[in-house]
Design goal:
The protein is built from 2 helices and 4 strands; from the N terminus they run H-E-E-H-E-E. It is an alpha+beta fold and 108 residues long. One of its GO terms (biological process) is iron-sulfur cluster assembly.
């Protein structure tokens, strides 16, 4: 029996967060989880792009992953900037140019 990879463990953790995210029409995916460096990249999609509090969600994900996983040292959370959450986009409504959550999506 092999131990789960960092990516699998982080994905399982994110699934536990999904009811909250999905309740608001959002989606998430773990894009990267580097076992050697401890770096994790999470992408938020659906209605998270263009949401006024997606930066709070991103901060909570970043803080909680670092606190809950000894081997996670750095977390980047990205959201799509376009606010596109239609059926024509891929992977749960993600679309548009990716930006770090600290960058303005230009929706206000």
């Amino acid at each position: 029996m092999s131990e789960k990879s960092l990516a699998e463990r982080v994905e399982q953790w994110m699934v536990g967060q999904m009811p909250i995210i999905q309740m608001h029409g959002g989606t998430s995916v773990v894009r990267e989880a580097n076992e050697e460096t401890g770096e994790v990249v999470v992408e938020l999609g659906g209605t998270c792009s263009g949401c006024g509090i997606s930066n709070v969600t991103a901060d909570n994900i970043r803080r909680d992953l670092i606190m809950d996983f000894e081997d996670v040292t750095d977390v980047t959370v990205r959201t799509a900037s376009s606010g596109d959450n239609g059926a024509s986009t891929v992977e749960g409504g993600r679309g548009g140019e990716l930006k770090h959550e600290t960058e303005s999506a230009g929706h206000f």
